[in-house]
Amino acid sequence: MIARRLRMMLALGLLTLAGCSAPKVAVQGTFPVPLVNPYPIHVGWHLDSALTSYVHKEKIDRGGEWVISVGAVQQSMFDSLSKGMFKGYTFLDSWESSAPVQLIFVPSIEQLQFSTPKQTRSKYFEVWIKYKFELRNPDGTSRGEFPLTAYGKAHIQNYSMNTNSAALQEAANAACRDAMAFFALQFRTLGPVKAWLDQNGLGS
Amino acid sequence: MSRHLRSMLAFAALLYLGGCVTARVEEIREGHTTISGGDAIAVLGKRDRPSATETEFDFVECVSRNMGSEVPVIAERTFRDTLFPWFEPRTAPANTRDLPELIGHPMFVERLNSIGVKYLIWIEGSTRRTDSAGTMSCTVSPAGGGCFGFLTWENDSEYEASIWDIKEGHTVGKVSSEAVGTSYMPALIVPVPIIARVKNSACSSLANQLTTFLTDAS
Fold first, then answer.
1. Tens digits of per-residue pLDDT, A46-96?
2. Which of A160, B55, B176, B216 lies 20 to 30 angstroms, CA to CA, from B188?
3. Euclidean distance between CA atoms A141 and A183, whole angstroms
């Protein structure tokens, strides 16, 4: 009888500890196509392996190692973005390509940061993603670069089961959507992009 | 009736009664509203920036669910995806003054017409614990376990819904719902929660009033 109760208490303790382990989350799913007037251009995207396999790992004091993986959805993001924004698009293995594109984007993630409710004494998980976009001509020569900082947050109260992982994942997902929204609506104002659009009579 | 059965019935009655909740609803009408065949509404929670607060998903879903039996409701996530990126936290219109710019985009209007949304309902607010008292201690040992003590807490739900006529680009009214309730948890070996369903009460009141507001032709 006592041994049975001890086994039950041990099982309860293990379950509790499992819920306290540091989250490992990966952004998943598909993204919506932006509802904007498409630009009459054919663009190329070069997504290198550093971007498509991007994983952020961070040790938090008394919190273990937290892992956020956003690389796997990058192609899906830029695929959806391009479907709505451009007349045509191609994913390129290299920025020096013979594909019939007018402009090439080479995005990369410079930094990813996150905060937990415990750290900020709030009820939100927050994720920031800092992108850098290189703009290149079809022959691979550089036309400049521009930054893009995206932000996402998730209220912990909205996720009752497995709270940390689900909320952190949603904050990262929200940051990815925010990056897409910014790119879609601010496209023509982005320095090197504006210069190219003006040069090719597409500035208005 | 056996003693055991009487105890269980008393316990069930306590749970059924729950804590006490007082609720109040107010409405301000600024324009005419009609819902005809093919018209739908979208219920959204305020998540725009730079506001640091968000309306809880479960409250917005509760209002959508309760209204959905009377008027066609587009789910929040579906609405945001269908009109992406115009209703993201970064880009969502903060007030009706921003609507004319949106309505000026033919693609936006076409997509809006395809889903039939006529009214947008923005809900902002929250449920907060405003007071608590009491203590409870629980022990677990190989010989058994139990709790002893008494806890009480008060929750306050305050929400306001703004109704926008998205095609005309103006506000047609506001409905606010406030609910306050006190919950109790006495414990003598087994804790007995007597929960005041404050958020549910605020949701039901708000949903009912919004439905009346939209379907009342006055």
1. 999 999 999 999 998 877 889 999 999 999 999 999 999 999 999 999 877
2. A160
3. 22
Residue carrying structure tokens 């192609």: A75
Side-chain-side CA neighbours of A112 within 13 Å: the count stands at 23
CA-wise closest residue to A80 among B88, B85, B48: B85
Contact status, residue A167 vs residue A125, Cβ threshold 8 Å? yes
Q: Where are the beta strands (DSSP E) in A47-123?
A: 55-60, 64-69, 86-92, 103-115
Q: Is A21 a domain residue?
A: no
Residue A71 lies in a domain: yes
In this predicted model, what pLDDT tens digit does every residue of A8-43 receive, in sequence order? Answer: 655 555 555 545 567 889 998 899 999 999 999 999
- CATH number, domain of A66, equals 3.40.50
CA distance B162 to chain A (A): 22
Which of the residues B77, B88, B127 would you substitute to probe the A interface, choosing the one with the greatest number of A C-beta atoms within 10 Å?
Answer: B88
What are the tens digits of pLDDT across the range B138-166?
A: 888 887 888 889 999 999 999 999 999 98
What is the span of the domain harbouring residue A142?
A: 41-199
Asked if the Cβ–Cβ distance from B142 to A5 is below 8 Å, we say yes
Give chain B positions within 8 Å (CB) of A182.
90
Residue A132 lies in a domain: yes
pTM over 0.90: no
Q: Tell me if A9 is assigned to some domain.
A: no
Residue range of the domain that includes B100: 3-215
Tell me whether residues B57 and A158 touch, CB distance under 8 A: yes
Q: Which of B54, B58, B86 sits opposite A35 (nearest CB)?
A: B86
Q: Is A34 on the interface with B (CB under 8 A)?
A: yes
**What mean pLDDT do residues B46-57 have?**
76
Cβ within 8 Å, pair B90-A153: no
